[in-house]
Write a structure and sequence with these properties.
The chain has 194 residues and is an alpha+beta fold. It contains 3 helices and 7 strands. The protein has a 7-stranded antiparallel sheet with strand order 1-2-7-3-4-5-6, with helices on one face. The two termini are 42 Å apart.
């Protein structure tokens, strides 16, 4: 009789064990899914912040940021580059430096060209694009001067223009919403899995 009871207990234990294992599997898979969702949400936010840093942090240090839309400074500054302009006194600019200035004819356009001569007494620059054969036809007065090019990141200007457009801003908002949704879904899964 003792042997029969022992066999019966073993059968019951064998039948109970798979049920416990299924519960453990559900809890484990819920936790894994929550972890993956949290990781995906975090990666989205980190990628968004990493993309925004080069567009925001330099401004804290007084730099102006512009995207290059023409090839007049190629190959030194390719079309689609992002240029960082640091402020400096126009009198301190040496020949050969690349500067940014407002267009003489059109104040809305910003031009980056190389200084071929700094006429300090007259308060103007003579400039030339590296890809141009001749110097610019009009001297650049000091009051049109923005600053010196301190850094150039090829290709980043096109990405920055796309990101700062209406569609880019909507995409950034959607990425933030997706990251928040993934974090909330992960929290829900964690609560359900115990």
């Amino acid at each position: 009789m003792l042997r029969a009871r022992a066999r019966f207990r073993r059968k019951i234990r064998r039948k109970e064990l798979p049920v416990e294992r299924e519960d453990n599997k559900r809890e484990g898979s819920g936790r894994r899914a929550a972890f993956c969702l949290r990781a995906a949400g975090t990666v989205l936010l980190i990628a968004l912040v990493a993309f925004c840093l080069p567009l925001t942090v330099p401004r804290l240090f007084g730099c102006h940021i512009y995207a290059v839309v023409s090839g007049s400074m190629e190959p030194a500054i390719p079309t689609g580059s992002l240029v960082y302009i640091g402020e400096s006194a126009p009198e301190d600019v040496e020949e050969g430096a690349v500067i940014a200035f407002y267009g003489v004819r059109d104040q809305a356009s910003i031009i980056t060209h190389r200084v071929t001569e700094n006429r300090r007494l007259m308060g103007e620059f003579i400039t030339k694009g590296d890809a141009n054969r001749t110097e610019d036809p009009n001297p650049v007065p000091y009051d049109q001067y923005i600053g010196r090019v301190v850094r150039c990141i090829p290709g980043a200007g096109s990405a920055a223009e796309a990101f700062t457009s209406r569609a880019g801003k909507l995409t950034a908002g959607a990425l933030i919403a997706a990251a928040v949704f993934l974090q909330a879904l992960a929290a829900l899964l964690e609560r359900r899995s115990g």
